[in-house]
Design goal:
Layout: H1 2-21, E1 42-47, E2 52-55, E3 66-69, E4 76-80, E5 89-94, E6 99-102, E7 113-116, E8 123-127, E9 136-141, E10 146-149, E11 160-163, E12 169-174, E13 183-188, E14 193-196, E15 207-210, E16 216-221, E17 230-235, E18 240-243, E19 254-257, E20 263-268
Bound molecules: calcium ion (CA) (4 copies).
Amino acid sequence: MKSTMRAAAAATAAVCGAVALAPTASGAPAPEPRPAADTTQTIGVYRVSDATFYLRGSNTPGQADITVQYGAFIDTPLAGDWNGDGIDTIGTFRPGNGTFYLRDSNTRGNADAVARFGNGGDVPIVGDWDGNGTTTIGVYRPENRFFYLRNSNTTGPADITFAWGNAADVPIAGDWDGDGTTTIGTYRVPNQTFYLRNSNSNGPADGTVKYGAPADTPLVGNWDGDPYDTISTYRVPNMTFYLRNANSPGNADVTVQYGGPTDVPLAGNWS
Ligand SMILES: [Ca+2]
Ligand SMILES: [Ca+2]
Ligand SMILES: [Ca+2]
Ligand SMILES: [Ca+2]
């Protein structure tokens, strides 16, 4: 994600600053500039039947590179950079108690952050709403079509609240315009259309893209490492990801068969 790139740039700037202030008499060679962090995301799935994440390190068919049992079978899986270190890690939202359980590594263990936020019937969404490099929590409430977004992964009130979308919409989130902040969107299942908004506020869609087939699950990711998150879908009957590198109609840029029939698709920069 863009936030990853920004964090890398900040780290590089910090190194350069330290060099400028260091005494030159030491004779120590100047460190090589660090290469920009890889912001490319790859696919993964959460298998409901065994409450396990199967994460893949490339957008190609094959075995999972990382397998992590985490959460309960009733949970909704999540992925994000909860601690701002450039790596996306796993998390879940438990509908029964409206609680997020976020883990800072893609390994088994207890949640590093637990946040009570939203109601049991809410749909979780996550993003870097304030552009500071960390992914934080949010929910979409279908009953009133309101988004509730929070800028920290802690229990507390929403920092941003607004209405958007229609009753049949599935909420999504991404950095559509590459400015470093995540904003919302929806996928309208009956007409297989993405509606994208470049600010977290009420107003018209900034982009409308027809993409996918009936029964597809929408997915958002940055598959090519440019500054933009883009739309994609996962098709359950043939367990195939249809990844697109532009927020425009067209054919998938990458097609990957991966996962199983009860799986939920994910995207992340896993390692
Ligand atoms: Ca992280
Ligand atoms: Ca943030
Ligand atoms: Ca943005
Ligand atoms: Ca991209």
